[in-house]
Amino acid sequence: MNLTLLLHVLGVVVWVGGMFFAYMALRPVAASVLEPPQRLTLWAGVFGRFFPWVWAAVALILGSGLHMLAKLGGMEAPHYALTMLALGLAMMLIFAHVFFAPYGRLKRAVAGQDWKAGGAALGQIRSLIGINLSLGLLTIAVVFVGRWLLLAS
Ligand code: HEM
């Protein structure tokens, strides 16, 4: 299970760490120093680089997570592992929505230089990534608190 856990955690580091950097560091600076045309073009490019890595992370996290879950007894696994499955699936659905809906609109708006529509799409992406970042940090906390409670009981 060690290699599987390593792949799982690497996927989590790439996805959650990338969201943390984008949301907490890049976003406020881009908002304060760039005008909409540069800012929206920057974000379309940043997401174009980051999202393929997120798809790879999602595949790795889901594959390794389900594999470990099966070894822990499937639906008989500890509650924290099943909670992780639920939170992880919610995060993946939110990411898929971001990718296919507002990110698609952002790319089209940047290509057509429609900065108003681009700003609206970026606003939606920002809210959804804020939610996913919170869910990701919560999921990490759930594993450790869950394990601790299991050991303490
Ligand atoms: C999508 C479905 C997912 C499934 C089925 C799943 C399943 C699992 C399982 C079975 C373990 C091993 C638990 C143990 O040995 O006690 C684990 C570990 C872990 N998972 Fe997940 N997971 C999923 C998604 C996620 C997500 C989205 C995150 C974070 C954002 C995450 C973070 C972690 C962490 C931090 C560990 C503990 C690593 C360690 O032992 O240090 N998982 N996961």
Automatic annotation (TrEMBL):
Keywords: Membrane, Transmembrane, Transmembrane helix. The keyword Cytoplasm does not apply. Residues 45-145 form the Copper resistance protein D domain. The chain crosses the membrane at residues 6-26, 46-68, 80-104, 125-150. InterPro entries: Cu-R_CopD_dom. The keyword Transmembrane helix applies. This is CopD family protein. It comes from Thiobacillus sedimenti.
